[in-house]
Amino acid sequence: MAIKTYGTMAVDWERRIDFDRLRRERLARIKKLLAESELGSVLCFDMNNVRYITATHIGTWAQDKISRFTLLPQNDEPILWDFGSAAKHHRIYCDWLGERSRAGIPLMRGAMTPEMGRSEDVAGKIYRELEERGLHKEPVGVDVVEPPVLFALQKAGLTIVDGQQLLSDAREIKTQDEISLLTHSAAMVDAAYYELYRAMKPGMRENDAVALVAQNLYTAGSEYVEGVNAISAERASPHPHVFSDRMMRPGDPVFYDILHSYMGYRTCYYRCFAIGSASHQLVDAYKRCRDYLDASIELIRPGRSTAEVASVWPKATEFGFPDEEAAFALQMGHGIGLAIWEKPMISRLVSLEHPHEIKPGMVFALETFWPTKDGTSAARIEEEIVVTETGHEVITRFPAEELLVAGAPFVTVGGQLPLVRETESAPNQEVREMVARAARAEAQTPVGAKG
Predict the structure, then answer these.
(1) Alpha-carbon torsion 124, 130, 134, 136, what sign?
(2) For residues 304, 308, 310 and 316, what is the CA-based torsion angle, rounded to 10 degrees?
(3) Pairing of β 41-44 and β 140-142
(4) Which of 21, 16, 39 is closest to 158 using CA atoms?
(5) Distance CA 223, CA 302 (A)
(6) Rounded to whole angstroms, what are the CA distances from 353 to 301, 308, 322, 424, 439?
(7) What is the DSSP string of 11-61?
(8) Which of 171, 176, 371, 423 is the 20 to 30 Å CA partner of 6?
């Protein structure tokens, strides 16, 4: 347990997460990669990249709006254009930006119509900053962009190229403070799972579980509960990736994926349970799922490759899918940070032919899936792992080495019901003898006397 978990407050008597260092080191990392590239600048509209470069945030409501943008020129400091009054707020409270925080409004995902000239306004702002620095003839790397803004940038004479890969490369290796934030974010989900485990019982609906988790996470300080995939019983195979209002019943399997962020840093964290009791098929599926996961975790260490990790997972055809694209994300690994999915991606779909070296400072989520023998349900588990200098450390700690049963025990006059049992019990000896006697009596009764 080399990675520490800190309190949530800043104190003078203990060194904890250093947010000034976090800001400096993130910016230094992208500046270094930009200096080593052929780009003259990067222009970012993705809020995660904007936050990584500028250390600003205006709420998750803006996550999909493409309404904020920042320009990082070679050998210079970032310039941020933000949503109306947010720019003034940053000038007051974000002294690392100062006057480089400005108002700027693009198309608002098409809500501003072309004749309003917002695309040309954005392009003009970017062109002027680059021209002042003599960078207007150098390639501009862009992460994501609305097509009219892209066209306006090109019409202004700028050469637009892919900048997404450069930002992904920067975010691939985490700083010590990023790892601390990811660990704290996972710890919050540890606690949410504990409350969920205590609450699960027959009659609870999937959406009830989602509400309970969201309440616990927001109470604990979550910035954004992006999603809680609550999937029970027959809904688990094939995995629908969305919760419903299905009511849980005795003997049901149920798995969850909890995705939230703390200070921007995400979780992707599956756990699987049984309600009241577990069938033998579910126990077997869970063990198979856990074994695949443990095998992949064992391979996480510096110098290994993503191909080696993916190679221990089953082929898609072994668990009911025609090819790896159809089974994508069921046996999977991915980087995690300010976004749920970051580099490197690990999957039999891509990793066997395009291996990626595993390096210290990477943080992965590894997730596996296995259906029950009859295909009516499945087990799903996930762990988050930090790559250390000598190996790895798992930062998701809610117990998952064996299948947990929630809402138990059921107590009868003969004692507690077994935790591993079928929902329809097999007939006991007395019942079998009763059936046999009835069959013999039926056979001995003359045909005309029946009825």
Answers:
(1) negative
(2) 180
(3) parallel
(4) 39
(5) 32
(6) 20, 11, 19, 47, 63
(7) -SSS----HHHHHHHHHHHHHHHHHHSS-SEEEE-SHHHHHHHH-----GG
(8) 171
The dihedral sign for the CA sequence 194, 200, 206, 207: negative
* pLDDT single digits (tens) 83-140: 989 999 999 999 999 899 999 999 999 999 999 999 999 999 999 999 999 999 999 9
Asked whether the CA dihedral 92, 98, 99, 100 is positive or negative, the reply is: negative
Q: Judge contact between 344 and 361, C-beta under 8 A.
A: no
Q: What gap in Å lies between CA 55 and CA 188, rounded to an integer?
A: 22
Task: Kindly compute the dihedral angle of the four CA atoms of residues 177, 384, 183, 47, in this order, to the nearest 10 degrees.
Answer: 60
Tens digits of residue pLDDT in 51-89: 999 999 999 888 888 999 999 999 999 999 999 899 999
* Sequence-ordered list of residues with C-beta below 8 angstroms from that of 22, at least 6 positions apart, any chain: 55, 175, 177, 178, 181
Amino acid identity, position 411: V
Could you tell me the CA-to-CA distances from 246 to 142, 201, 206, 254 in Å, in that order?
43, 13, 6, 11
Count CB neighbours of 116 within 10 A. 13
CA distances from 282 to 213, 235, 239, 287 (A): 24, 14, 15, 9
Domain annotation for the chain: domains and CATH numbers: 19-172 (3.40.350.10), 176-406 (3.90.230.10)
Q: What is the SS3 assignment for 199-232?
A: HCCCCCEHHHHHHHHHHHHHHHCCCEEEEEEEEE
Give the DSSP H or E segment for 144.
none
Burial of 205 (0-12, 13-18, 19+ CB in 10 A): middle
Phi first, then psi: what are they for 256, rounded to 5°? -130, 145
Instruction: Look up tokens 């976004």; give the residue.
Output: 339
Q: Which amino acid is at 391?
A: G
Q: For residue 449, what are the CA distances in angstroms to 336, 436, 438, 444?
A: 75, 20, 16, 10
φ, ψ at 357 (rounded to 5°)? -70, 135
d(CA 403, CA 348): 26
Q: Report whether 171 contacts 362 (CB < 8 A).
A: no
What's the CA gap between 388 and 442, in Å, rounded? Answer: 73
Are the C-beta atoms of 34 and 70 separated by less than 8 Å? Answer: no
Percent of the chain with pLDDT over 90: 88
Q: What is the DSSP letter of 108?
A: T
Q: How far apart are the first and last CA of the chain?
A: 74
| 124 CB-side CA count, 13 A | 8
